[in-house]
Amino acid sequence: MADIKTFHLPDLGEGLPDATIVEWHVKEGDYIKLDAPLCSMETAKAVVDVPSPYTGTVKKLHGAPGDIIETGAALADFEPDPNAKQRAEAEATGHHHGPKKAEAPAPAPAPAPAAKAATADREDEGTVVGAMVSGSHVHVEQASSVGGVKAVPAVRALAKKLKVDITRVRGTGTDGVVTMQDVKDAAANGSAALGAAPARAVPASAGRHLAPELPEPGAAPSRTPVSQAGKAVRTAPPSVQASGQPEQLKGVRRNMARVMAEAHANVVPTTLVDDADLHAWIGKQDITARLIRSIVAACKAVPALNAWFDGKNLTRTLHPHVDIGIAVDTEDGLFVPALRNADVLDGAGIRAAIKRLRTSVEDRSIPASELSGYTISLSNFGMFAGRYATPVVVPPTVAIIGAGKLCHDVVAVMGGIEVHRRMPISLTFDHRAATGGEAARFLKALLDDLAMPN
After folding, report:
1. For the residues 381-387, what does the mean pLDDT come to?
2. Angle at 220 between CA 218 and CA 223, to 5 degrees
């Protein structure tokens, strides 16, 4: 009887309980070599290739593209090739490949100081909208050649999302690697639509087809509130068929839902709002860079809000440096990359760092280390709409600043009125870790810096 091995979904180094199948690189019955790409999986941070743990025949795939697989659950069954070299059972791979333990393990001896330090380094290694415990293994996306096409998993996922046949996309990257921009260009010009057959030239002398020609389909009929008889078209609420099936949250959105629910359950939020008067600004200013500078000034004036708070042990950690988590909205969900060392960057450095972070978020190449460990957060929602907000404080941070839409307000001045450009500012803080007075002084320091001419 053949020796069948079951491969369980490993911990992909994200500290998350599951991942979504994006694409299988093999099918049942295929022969695969050790460490060859088995499938692409989407987590809350990236799309990564999962390598095969065996050389042999794929007997069963436990799931289809779009399915969510829990960490430790069966992913694929293999019949290892007895004549091929396999990885030793005890050889470390950087992942835990076994199923989840049903019971907690017995207490272990106290770790050595070096082990304690290593554990401490792992306590906050990354998430999209919050800090969660994870392993220390870092996955670097590398272009793999599947189907004769060289591309990283994130590019393959984007091609599938945009309905682009990646096998028909000309790669402009190094060694012919297909890039994000290649896929976006192909989607824009329609040169590699999924399922479309290559155009074939038809000789001018070719005869007409004998089948009758059908008229071109017209535009879909528009919806109206009444029928042709003048009666209401629908009087019942939308059914499941009319409104669509419930959609399972995956990847970034799935993690966002978990983190926001946890934050809502554990934080005691309080919000203060006010308007920053920008009337004294001289010349053109980089608004985001000025916001960052003002947050840094406020953190130096009132360190209580540039801190982490441990609600279980009731401990507070004040930070001498300022790492600002900047909320980045994407179609896939919310990312919060960290702008490191904001307190020592000038305006040009801030702009360059933000551009780099946004680009790496958009192409899903941002490493996990840049999605965690920030000391305070900023949500610049006013880029779209809205004056004031109550943004969510995600533990262990203590505060988040919300910047609203710039507006021109009539303000009273000595001897009359003037029209000033102002920016609405919202400050939400965890009232367990900071007092109302500290929050108010922080907000004042931020407003005072924003009001400066330069």
Report:
1. 94
2. 145
Phi, psi of 22 (to 5 degrees): -95, -45
Cβ atoms of 70 and 6 closer than 8 Å: no
Closest among 347, 337, 354 to 296, alpha carbons compared: 347
**Inter-CA distances, 438 with 400, 431, 442, Å:** 14, 10, 6
**Where do the H-state alpha helices sit in 74-168?**
113-122, 153-161
| Average pLDDT value over all residues in the chain | 81
How many Å separate Cα 348 from the centre of its chain? Answer: 26
Q: pLDDT (tens digit, 9 = 90+) per residue, 230-247? A: 777 666 666 655 556 778
Class assignment of domain 258-450? Answer: alpha beta
Phi/psi at 301 (5° precision): -75, -40
- Measured from the Cβ of residue 389, the count of other Cβ atoms closer than 10 Å reads 18
Cβ–Cβ under 8 Å, residues 212 and 182? no
Instruction: Parse the chain into domains and list their residue ranges.
Output: 1-88+125-132, 144-189, 258-450
Cα–Cα distances in angstroms (integers) from residue 290 to residues 3, 118, 203, 264, 345, in the given order: 64, 37, 65, 30, 12
- Distance from C-alpha of 262 to C-alpha of 311, rounded to nearest angstrom: 12
Residue 101 confidence (pLDDT) above 70:
no
> What pLDDT score was predicted for residue 102?
44
Topology, domain 1-88+125-132: OB fold (Dihydrolipoamide Acetyltransferase, E2P) (2.40.50)
The mean per-residue pLDDT over the stretch 65-90 comes to 87
**DSSP label at 299?**
H
Task: Give me the pLDDT at residue 202, please.
Answer: 44
Q: Which amino acid is at 313?
A: N
pTM over 0.70: no
User: What's 144-189's CATH class?
Assistant: few secondary structures
Q: Are 271 and 427 in contact (CB under 8 A)?
A: yes
pLDDT mean over 403-422: 94
Does position 92 have pLDDT exceeding 60, yes or no?
Answer: no
